[in-house]
Write a structure and sequence with these properties.
The complex is a heterodimer of chains A (278) and B (438).
Chain A (H helix, E strand, L loop, with lengths): L20 E2 L8 E10 L2 E11 L4 E5 L6 H7 L10 E9 L2 E2 L7 H7 E4 L10 H12 L5 H14 L3 H4 L12 H13 L5 E5 L7 H14 L4 E5 L3 H7 L2 E6 L2 E7 H6 L4 H7 L5
Parallel strand pairs in A: 1-11, 4-9, 4-10, 7-8, 8-9
Antiparallel strand pairs in A: 2-3, 2-5, 5-6, 10-11
Chain B lengths: L1 H60 L4 E10 L2 H4 L7 H6 L2 H12 L6 H8 L6 H11 L7 E7 L2 H7 L16 H12 L3 E5 L1 H5 L12 H32 L4 H13 L4 H15 L7 H25 L3 H9 L4 H29 L3 H5 L20 H9 L5 H31 L4
Antiparallel strand pairs in B: 1-2, 1-3
Helix pairs in contact in B: 1-18, 10-13, 10-15, 10-17, 12-13, 13-15, 14-15, 15-18, 17-18
The chains are: A alpha/beta (278), B mainly alpha (438).
């Protein structure tokens, strides 16, 4: 395990204390989080989280409801900025650059770190407009044909093209739930981000649609880094390479997904995975 | 054994629940039906009152759209119109048209010789008839020196008699028309010289002391100009304020104070805004009194809070998922609001605007304070000319003693309602066009 300089490492790996166990660090990380604390007003929602996200990996964030995994995810593209009274302390670096630095514009950050939400939320516009919106506002296409090309590429990448190529002018909200969610993924990748954050993307979908999205996540790993929050441990096991277990605002255990699910080191992780609570 | 017991207990319970539910069902249903019946009664009562109201207004207003005209054979005698033979427009405007009319009337009733009687005879004609005649001649100057049959408006008393609104059975002293006048009128009717025709005057002219000459156009234009000012000022300012307060303003003590004040302003009696307009716009800024400009400004103050409050609640009701979606792919705050939130909030904002504008259209109290209650004959042609508005005109006519104004009051109410329906219809059409929700 590589230990970069001037990065504090948890002092001990005690089983009983709520301190992170496992492999926090990875080689050449895409995202580094150090001592991240999040407050909602008085509430200390996330406490001292240290976590790395590697390149081209899918990291699953699991844990019981209210443990702060969604809050943590939303820190990574500063979506928490929109919440009143939310404060983020600590350091989050994307490719070595602090995303909470003063001079950083959140517009550029969010173009780099896209997000897919729990409930599919296509714009009440046509399918084409949904996907074209991001490239258009960021000026990614120089003309109409290039824009159409981006839209087609993104929809193909999201595995939606064959189903809807004849209905591009139809409303995005008229699609089924699973198609809508894939449309949202297409909309996200149309901006060509580096990281995609997914906040329980399958919780509103049926098993078949879920399977399609999981397949898609696996495919997208080639090009993107993906952080996914999920309540389904099977899903975490299926799609992710690494898993982080959150408990009461703290990261309890991080490690290879296979290891965490077969041989958890922390008692809390084991209890959660075996279904004793959560 | 114990298992069986438990089973039977549960199944008994199931039956018991079923029986209880069934027993309570008629009561629940009755409650529901009763409530439905109450609702239906309320709606029927409301509709009934509406029918009575409209029936009353329309039955009164109906006759105002017709006016009695008299056919006179007028000889455009050159020796009266143009005694000096100048043949120019000036003479046509200053000519002695009453003399022409008197001659024509005398020709109809040659037996009337006495001065007093002659005056009564000429009183059959409206006092506006000479002007009508002048306008007619100016349009057809070739008729100079010839005789032509001209239709001219009659006095409002005659009009009322023809419309059977003057009771012939009451004593002569209690009637506006004497017996001999009624005899003349009956003769004219018998000759086919009196005829009810469409009342162009009502839609073409401004206010007048004579009912047969009074028209709604002045008030209509005044309302139009006033509402134009109100719309042009209150819509952009109101929508922009709502967007800023809801989407951009930091939430602190100042925005709280502003919010409380806006809510209070919406509840301020409208006449207070009139006083404010009088003090600020007329006395301090010196804007012209009775003008649609000042009226529009006052109504803007009155309408703004309504538009802002409605706009804010419309913006608030846009689901946050849309905002998140836009922000999540890197749209700026402004792009999020203008590309996604505003189009969804637009129908609601427009509804608020419609309500505000409709209220402004029907408002009279604040306009009384700024002088729009004055008796204004001319039809306003600009924002700074003195004018009145429809509700104030209705108030003025309702206050007049002439019998002819009764029907005109109702007709003016109909015009106001038609204006309101047109305006709302337009707004609803616009809203429907915006409301392309998928």
């Amino acid at each position: 395990m590589r230990q970069p300089e001037n990065i504090p490492i948890p002092a001990s790996f005690s089983r009983d204390q709520l301190q992170t166990v496992g492999d926090i660090f990875v080689e050449n990380p895409r995202i580094q989080c150090r001592n991240v604390d999040v407050y909602y007003g008085e509430k200390h929602a996330i406490q001292d989280v240290n976590l790395d996200v590697g390149r081209n990996e899918v990291i699953a964030l699991i844990g019981p409801s209210g443990c702060g995994k969604s809050t943590f995810l939303r820190c990574l593209n500063r979506m928490n900025d929109t919440i009143l009274g939310c404060r983020v302390n600590g350091e989050i670096k994307l490719d070595g650059l602090d995303i909470y630095a003063d001079g950083l514009d959140v517009v550029t950050l969010r173009a780099q770190v896209g997000m897919v939400f729990q409930k599919p939320n296509p714009f009440p516009k046509s399918i084409f407009e949904n996907v074209a919106y991001g490239p258009r506002i960021h000026g990614l296409a120089s003309d109409k044909f290039e824009l159409e090309e981006i839209v087609e590429k993104s929809l193909r990448r999201a595995g939606l093209w064959d189903e809807i190529k004849d209905y591009l002018r139809h409303p995005g909200t008229g699609l089924s739930g699973g198609q809508q969610q894939r449309l949202c993924i297409a909309r996200t990748i149309a901006v060509n981000p580096e990281v995609i954050l997914m906040d329980e993307p399958c919780s509103a979908l049926d098993p078949i649609a879920t399977a399609k999205i999981e397949q898609l996540i696996d495919d997208l790993r080639e090009d993107y880094t993906i952080a996914i929050v999920t309540h389904s441990m099977q899903q975490a096991a299926r799609v992710s390479q690494r898993t982080a277990y959150f408990h009461l605002g703290k990261v309890i255990e991080v490690g290879d997904t296979a290891l965490i699910f077969t041989n958890p080191r922390h008692q809390l992780t084991e209890d959660y995975i075996t279904g004793r609570f959560g | 054994m114990s298992n069986q017991k438990e089973d039977s207990k549960y199944s008994n319970q199931g039956i018991r629940t079923h029986q209880l539910v069934k027993a309570g069902l008629p009561r629940r249903r009755a409650k529901e039906n009763r409530f439905k019946a109450y609702g239906l009664i309320c709606i029927v009562a409301g509709l009934g009152f509406l029918v009575i109201l409209f029936g009353n207004i329309i039955s009164h207003a109906w006759s105002a759209f017709e006016q009695t005209y008299i056919a006179l054979d007028v000889t455009f005698d050159e020796s009266i119109i143009d005694p000096e033979g100048r043949h120019d427009l000036e003479t046509l405007t200053t000519a002695d048209y009453p003399a022409l009319l008197k001659k024509s009337m005398s020709a109809l009733f040659p037996e009337v010789k006495e001065r007093q009687q002659k005056r009564s005879l000429n009183g059959i004609l409206s006092s506006g008839a000479p002007y009508e005649l002048q306008r007619f001649l100016q349009q057809h100057p070739a008729l100079l020196g010839k005789t032509e049959r001209v239709w001219l408006p009659v006095d409002d008393d005659v009009d009322m008699l023809v419309k059977s609104q003057i009771d012939r059975t009451v004593g002569e002293a209690d009637r506006r028309l004497k017996d001999f006048q009624i005899a003349w009128i009956d003769k004219l009717i018998a000759d086919g010289r009196l005829e009810k025709r469409f009342n162009k005057q009502f839609f073409a002219s401004g206010d007048s002391r004579e009912p047969e000459l009074a028209g709604i156009r002045g008030a209509l234009m005044g309302s139009l100009f006033t509402l134009l000012v109100t719309a042009v000022l209150s819509l952009p300012v109101g929508v922009a304020s709502a967007i800023y307060l809801e989407e951009f303003a930091p939430s602190n003590r100042w925005t709280d104070i502003i919010e409380v004040n806006i809510n209070n302003l919406a509840a301020v009696p409208s006449i207070v805004f009139g006083l404010l307009g009088l003090a600020v716009f007329i006395n301090f800024f010196g804007l012209p009194r009775s003008s649609p400009l000042v009226g529009g400004l006052v109504l803007t103050l009155m309408t703004l809070p309504v538009i802002i409050i409605a706009g804010r609640s419309a913006l608030k009701s846009v689901p946050p998922s849309i905002r998140e979606a836009a922000l999540g792919i890197g749209a700026s705050q402004m792009q999020t609001v203008f590309h996604h939130v505003l189009p969804l909030a637009m129908p609601g904002m427009l509804t608020g605007a419609i309500i505000g504008m409709a209220r402004a259209l029907g408002e009279s109290a604040p306009l009384l304070m700024i002088g729009m209650v004055a008796f204004i004959v001319d039809v306003p042609g600009s924002l700074t000319e003195p004018s009145t508005v429809l509700p104030v005109q209705i108030y003025l006519w309702a206050d007049s003693s002439e019998r002819g104004f009764v029907e005109r009051t109702s007709a003016a109410i109909l015009v106001l309602l038609a204006f309101l329906i047109t305006m709302n219809g337009l707004a609803i059409y616009l809203r429907k066009r915006y409301e392309r929700r998928w």
